[in-house]
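pinned: reference chain
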Amino acid sequence: MAIERHFLGWDAPVTTKVRQFLLPSELTGPVDLEKQLIVVPTRQAGRRLREALALHCAEQNTALLSPQVVTPTFFLQSKHETARVPNQIEMTVVWIDVLMRADLTQYSELFPARTLEHSFTWAMHTAGLLQGLRDSLLDGGYRIADILDRFGNVLEERQRWQDMARLEAACLARLEELGLEDPCNITLHRAEKPELPKEIERIIVAALPDPTPLMLRALEHLASQVPIDILVHAPESLADYFDQWGRPITDKWNESQITIPDASRNLLLTVSPLGQSRKVIEVIAQESNRFGPVDIAIGVPNSEVTPFLMADLADKDLIAFDPAGKSMAEHPLYHLVDAFHALVTEKTYASFSAFLRHVDVLAFLQQEHNLSPRWLLEELDEFQNQHLPLGVEDIAARFLPRGVERQDSHRGFGNMQKAAAFIQQQLESFQHQDMDTAIRSLLQTLYGVRTVNPNDAEDEEFIAASGLVDAALRELASDVISRLGIEKENALAMLLQWLATQRYYVERKGAVVDLEGWLEL
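pinned: its structure tokens
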């Protein structure tokens, strides 16, 4: 079989060019792409390509059948894996277990501090760094030990790498004790023996500018089974500027001069993300007599600009869609779990107040207990001024000392008393239940009164975010984590750490402008 490059030219958008490569201009009947696997850079690229293929077929009154459009990670996955491979959270827990057991004085190059804090929080943070390093190295087909073996002679901090390699070996040994396989080893194995669906007879790599070495290793093996077409969004005259996989050759492009027409007018400088957003709105307004919203593409290589653009475009009634999704750490559901974690671990007045002030807690108390948020928060401030409570126990004692209600202690604080009783109930639930059950109970209590409409943008985001919470709780309820004896407070901290790294995605509904990242561009 062969690997063949095809240069599409750049006189039209790449989506159009790929569609022209896949489908003839004139169609005589339904189009079936079942035997072709089309690889695109991102989810958004896949969505755009499927739209273009479907639209072309619809314009000729025919149907599009079975388009298989995937992203690069497809080749490193398997539907027939029999090994017990830990998920991301389980892997982090194993790392934490190794770090908590380790004699850190034996890793002095990696941990040079004389009085290092050997706590769960430190171990959790360090586990994330070590696993992140392994994930990054895996893109190139390496493990930590491989770096030491292959590049040990040129490493500037060889002893630190030796310490990390020893910790990696300890982690692998712990996985074996638990009856688990190393995810990195499994992925490397998949790259050496990649699987294709039986029906696939051809692979088309559509304008993929930065495939990882590990993915290319998989493609090299697959090239002996099926032909592979590499589509390059550039003219044939620049063939020498790309390698056999369609990747730009850095040295050639570093020396290439790209002419920008009328640079003084077309290059606009600003000093901040906010300034960039305002300039975009200004340019759209200036060109409104020539171009409408559907004619506009906005490229956002710097994600810091995105929140400003979303807000500024919305102010002009231009609904924008960000295919990169949103960070879970920005969603109110994450803030709620974070506030509850602080409440159960700190039990201070500040944590009590922060949890009570969360918008969803206030909404629940208003709907279920008829507590006005305004009067409740006024009472909270007044209570704090009068009694200067140090923590949750002090607050509870003011209302129900030793189970006997004191009338003078809560006079004028009726709303506050009901709210404090609810919070105390949640704390007791967490104390007497496992973490998974307690958190689910809290969320079901707070949101059980909420009606969710998938067609509402805010509710759609809530559904996506709650799906991430549910998935994380399922992973944290695994037997591996229970066998390693993770305390519920620490498990809750791990839930937050994992959620903070996640992004959630919603459907493109009603959007008129897409905010494209550099790969989409």
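why pinned: Residues 120-139 form the longest helix (20 residues). Residues 402-409 have pLDDT under 50 and may be disordered.
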